[in-house]
Amino acid sequence: MAKTPSRPLHPATRLVTGGRRSEWTGTAAQPGAVVNPPVYRASTHLYPDTAALKTGPAKNEDGRFYYGRRGAPTQWALAEALTEMEPGAAGTMLYPSGVAAIFGALLAALRPGDVLLMTDNAYEPSRALGRAWLHEFGVETRWFDPQDPAAFAAALCPRSKVVLLESPGSLTMEVQDIPALAEVAHAQGLCVIVDNTWAGPLGFPALTMGADITVMSLTKHVGGHSDLMMGSAAAGPEWYAKLRRMAQLTGQVVSPDDAALALRGLRTMGLRLQQETAAALALAEWLAGRDEVARVLCPMLPGSPGHALWQRDFTGGCGLFSVVLRGKDAAARNALIDALELFGIGYSWGGFESLVTPLDPAGTRSATPWPLPDMDPADRFGVRLSIGLEAVEDLKADLERGLAAWRGAEGA
Ligand SMILES: *Cc1c(COP(=O)(O)O)cnc(C)c1O
Fold first, then answer.
1. How far, in Å, are 114, 223, 325, 356, 391 from residue 342 at the CA level?
2. 247 pLDDT exceeds 90?
3. CATH classification for the domain delimited by 269-408, as one of 3.10.20.30, 3.30.530.20, 3.90.1150.10, 3.40.50.150
4. Residue 195: CB within 6 Å of ligand 1?
5. Which end of the chain is more exposed for a tag (fewer CB within 10 A), N or C?
6. Cβ of 97 below 6 Å from ligand 1
């Protein structure tokens, strides 16, 4: 950005101006000469003399040339833009994937002998970290019902050090009462980590709602074009220092080319989120009225589970939601998916194109059953939809084709 703003900026404006320091977008003679920071492909950073070489690493400040593993202006600009969008953040660390960011946050906060509490609806690779790596290194993970703050309080013990929340939760979209859970956690001295990939800071300013560390998979909406993998973790001063120390010790770095792509994605993220949120809401409403559908899991939809909390705590949504089909089996559900022409079949979400994956969470829960207690046990299979930027009418026609295939399929 060319000039220092004279008044506080709206988040939509910060999305455009963030990270555009004039010394990163120009030369000493012509600061701020271009809009975007160039792609600095650099491992070695050079020093004018041995005295500077000696003092450089000791300083190790953000935004100073040192060595490629600490990044260069392209990565610094992205990290700074993310920090500017995140109310309460002192800084943001970048990681080569969202999973690496979750790992980086856990590593900064846990030590052998500690207990990690994890919401039962967490992203499966987060669960796998608890089951495998953390377990092997002496950290015990306990899962709790995302909808039940009392169960969370009851699960705490003197060894509990961290709670990992995710709201809405992967696949099943439960909204958690994060302010209430964080209050309980903080009373016991726990660090609260929130996987905030779904809403991002525009929809849920996690650090102001009780999170100590907020994590995002930038692979999703920030990248936005299904062409990069990256993650971030942001925090206030105390936890940012710990995140930064651990990220530096373990050599976390992202490529400048990917950082430039992520910055490009970030500039239009607000607009994309608005469009896909509106489209997802329209489709969720339409699906909720269909006979084939037992339940729509979309917190933005009035009457859907979690809507009241979403309305209370969130300022935005996104295009990701799930649909539980009425009865039948996995084969019928697969017939629905295979009949779709516009929805790509594949993992990830938050790109410009619509995607679909099977929903069958029974095997990925340990503290709560699936189907949920208030659901018909026959309603088990469904789909998760990531709504992209296609015309809603075309997506509706595609889903209509899928539902017809589901109706035509065998199944109880
Ligand atoms: C995709 C995802 C991640 C992991 O991100 P990657 O960049 O794919 O490693 C973490 N949390 C949630 C909720 C996700 O959907």
1. 46, 21, 20, 10, 11
2. yes
3. 3.90.1150.10
4. yes
5. C
6. yes
